[in-house]
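In keeping with the milestone schedule agreed at the kick-off meeting, the structural modelling team has produced records for the first pair of proteins. Each record is given below as a sequence line and a structure-token line. The laboratory manager (R.T.) confirmed that both were archived under the project's standard naming scheme.
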Amino acid sequence: MIPLFTSIPPRTIRTTSDGSDIGDEYASMCVRSWRSSGFDPVTVNSHNEAIADVVHEENVRSIRIDRDAQKDYGKPLVFFSDFLKAACAGCEGPIAITNADIVLDVPGDVYDRISSLPQGKSLVAKRLDVDDFGSSAGSEYRHGYDLFVFHTADLRKFSFEGFVFGMPWWDHVLPIDMYLNGIEGLPSDLPIAFHLKHSERWDFERWVTLGRHFLKSVRRRLDSGAYSPERALGYGSDLSQARAGPDVDVLERLTRPLRRLSRSYRVQDEIEMLTRVADLNVAWLDHIRTASTGALQAGSHGSS
């Protein structure tokens, strides 16, 4: 079985349309779906975070980490760099990474491809958001990815300091950084990951903070020449355009510097810029996912 790493929270909160609490049942359903799809689940948590009942009830292997993000973000979540080190420590070959509230249904032919995944290859998959418990019909999530399969030999080469598993942008920096380093993706357009819809509690302050960190991290590696030249050229150009934003008319160009004196405008401007960057990331990953070879040529997505 392919090891699957996640971080199961102390409590899963899900309710039905009539208000009934199905959090525990849903958490168990997720774990069982991983196993039935051929994965061996492992939860990575801080020593300061309580272990969920489902971990004991479903006999999920648990790894505890000393360091956490409590001081920085008010929650004892695991730093992504520590998460990856723990995942790679006892494994050789392909491993899967997913959010804890994802139900998997991986067909046998897809599993065969990822179970023999060689170094230099990967799979990323989007989820379908479903309305009903146990349903497999829904709408594709537009803003990111929820299942990743990489080879440990590739993951060990990279570090993602400052990102936190379970908070924004880790699921962008991981696949973007790996692909810019030359890792290729297996085509994946089948719905294999599902997620029961729930109310979102966006914390824009943390989203913006970690978005800034994403930009600094990727920009630093682009400038240092750490990435594959062909891919860096295309993505770097698209990233600069996303940061700059669309062309504006003369009046907008003249008044924008004055409006930026307002803090509320500066914040809104930054949120819009980071939204464009996030959309760019998803567009690039969508291209890789649907490309027949998984190879991404310089400028192949870009501004077209």
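The second protein of the pair:
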Amino acid sequence: MKNIIVHTTNNNAYTIITNTNKTTTKVLGMLKHLQRLLLRFSTYDNPYSYNIEVATQQLLEYADEFGIPIDTTQLQDQQYLNELHKKYELGFNGQAEWLLYHEAIHMFEAIKNHLTDVDVRLTYGILSGPLDVKYDWDELATCQPNIEFGDCYVAFSELGKTPYHYWREGEPDNLERLCQLAKPMLRLNFQLRICVNPQPLPADIAEFEAWFSQYRGAWCRHWGIPAWTVEQMFGGIKIGTMPDVDKFIAGLKDNHEPLRLELVDA
């Protein structure tokens, strides 16, 4: 088994001590190839950059790439954000600029819904796509909601929403649209997360569960899975731990970003 070294832009290095499980083995197999590349680290991947000014600048910049007009007075309106998201659904063609546009919308949703205590993401963006593999159900059954400070894990990273976020963000109350926009964890792509903000389940989970109960069976059949739980929507599969996460966070706050990853012998 290998461990993972996170190299940062100020020449520091932080070790992720890996677990032994099926998902970790798949992740390390991907990283064997990807470690030759630099990480794609954006404002969306850094929880300490989540603010209105950053999100607005990013949205305006990348919407302009596609000739999409933005009314900045409506960016706190979820229905307006949903309309901007539909433009992404219709236009996305694999270009990295579309993903940055998409990320800006989700930053606004996180800020508006007070969900900005996100974790650090380490990803190669679209460059890792050819290495994506499907999750096995026995892997998904190991999702745990109690991700702890310093844990390295994989979680929901589809180009879509979880059923909870679909409901929370006021999308149409019908099964067809739910199946279009909301997904389970289908593909394991290379997006590692470092837990810097452990989170309890949202307070409105019971209300969501009551709503989702009318659709859960049909939605699971649509995606070909036997079940899908709140723990799987909000949790993740732990693949390791970063012992020096406090120092890693201090570096992020000083704008020392993750630059590249390296596999080393455990």
